[in-house]
Here is the input.
Amino acid sequence: MFKFFRWLFGRKKPLLEYKTEIASPDGRTVCEVQLKNGQVFYAVYKDKKVVIRESHLGMNLRGDNPLYNGLMLVRTLSRTMDDTWETIVGEEKIIRNNYNETALYLAESGGKKRLFTMRFRVFDTGVAFRYEIPPQPEFQRLVLADELTEFNVDANGYAWHIPAYQPDRYEYNYSRSPVYELSSSVHTPLTIETPVGYAISIHEAALYNYGSMTIKLNQKNVLAADITPLSDGAKAYVELPFNTPWRVIMVGDNALDLTTNRMILNLNEPPKEDFSWVKPLKFMGIWWAMYVGEWTWAEGERHGATTEHAIEYIDACKRLGIDGLLVEGWNNGWNGDWLKNGPTNDFMHPAKGFDIERVAKYAKDNDIELVGHHETVGYIDNYEKQLDEAYQYYENYGIHYVKPGYAGAWMTIQGRKEYHHSQLGVLHYQKALELAAKHHIMLDVHEPIKGTGLERTWPNLLTREGARGQEYEGGALSPSHATILPFTRLLSGGMDYTSGIFDVTNGTKRIATTLARQLAYYVTIFSGMQMASDRPRFYETEQKEAFKFIRDVPVSWERTVPILGVIGQYYVVARQGRDTEDWFVGGVTNEEGHRVRLNLDFLADGIYEAEIYRDGDDAHYRENQLSIIIETRKVGRMDNLDIFMAPGGGFAVRLKKVQ
Ligand code: NOJ
Here is the structure.
């Protein structure tokens, strides 16, 4: 510590005014940082055009003066990073981490003379910064009252947003409106189409031990951080040293450019342990049968999670070439009103009729991974009491994947109702993730904390929900939703969208889709665990041919090449299977439909067999939903494929290298 202070103050006299420009490696993105009148500001430019105008930085603290005024610059330190790293599971195998960094060491000129650092990293694809506060004799801990970070974007930009502080967490339909019309807090990633043509997305990376950041217009009418409060109104209680999460402004030449922005992962640390045991998974589930009312989570005549059903489904997985099976409703706690049973849910005793030992053995003998399920309803005390043992329980049965759920409007912690996205929620999700890693368990978290790239450090965090998914179908999802997600929610990481529903005309849960679109999702929505969500009989008999794509499509990728996209209208992406030469393309469109001429120049030289799954000419998300054309042809990188996506439809192509 002493050495640090000696270094810090050992050189020149502190500066009262200062201005610097930190340019990205390609020089196109520039962050301008300024100290004037004792306050710090930053601004962001791309190609000399303003992306973020002068914006304030600072914090209001409870029981202490704000960290905001009377600042001077003690020292700066700059460096360049250019590195590559390998993902265990992901959209790309190799990720380049390349930025220029400057840290500004600031000190108050009066009062307690507190110190903090603003660290900026400028990538070709955007700007990130965070507050770093070392422990000091008179400053050992803080209670955050408000983070004053501003993101002063042009208010005429169009924002794609979902509301914050709502009972269904992130599970809302997106709205598009000018920034100046944002009347209450919205979640991040907050994607904005700027008037000068760039697309930006404001988000955060490496969210640990702090309330998550939502965004709202502040009193000056400037977009600003609004950190999720605890029930006592404080935003975070932290011991120093402390680094806030990174505040990130991804900047794309256009919206499609954002979809391969890797800043969020790059701003997280490499793993500290060996995670070579982490494997992506495709799985089916004793699940959708409950959504359409065929089976129930609760025990009784129609109980889904029986030993017999599990064995039938394991046999089906085997026949269909699917490696995993999720079983929901397997444990005590589902009888009666399961949402009310949250405080007593029991994760270590199976329901009557479910012989976990037999099912686990049968799965193992057949090489099928079971996916366990913990529905906590947000009752954290009850869950944390059991957590370590509950993971151990699964581990004893050879279960390495778990889907935890936090359905419920609140996290109930020590008798208090807290937001899922408050500091207490964040701490809980982290505790669960780390304990899971200890037990070599991989997670698919439903009702999660949003993604902030932690899967780089904790690759066992294979996927999460955290947006409106297919279970909302049956009226609550419009076809445009899946054309918005790639530019918003998916910038924060993979999503378990529960794709592959083939029984689309079901009277109970009719799905606004065509059959081909269900296949497209496996490519357009990345997820380290992909579900084939429907009941096996729809895959084995009715739509056997279409199912072949679900069987063939990889979960983890070598490379991702975005092809076409307009937020809310259509999105087409090509991905190369991890460690293979084969490519897969997926496209989805809104209720208008869209025709694409797919240029195959992302392929290597040679001949590929294209298996095309596309909407029939009469297909539509409301009628003739099952109309599909499946055809095969030989193609090369100079070829184009003309494809019609029906209203609410989509397509999928597998390109298998044959020569
Ligand atoms: C909500 C989850 O998103 C869903 O997948 C699950 O089946 C239910 N909760 C019950 O746990």
Q: What stands out?
A: The CA atoms of residues 512 and 621 lie 5 Å apart. The chain has two domains: 2-84+96-266, 281-553. The two ends are 62 Å apart (CA to CA).
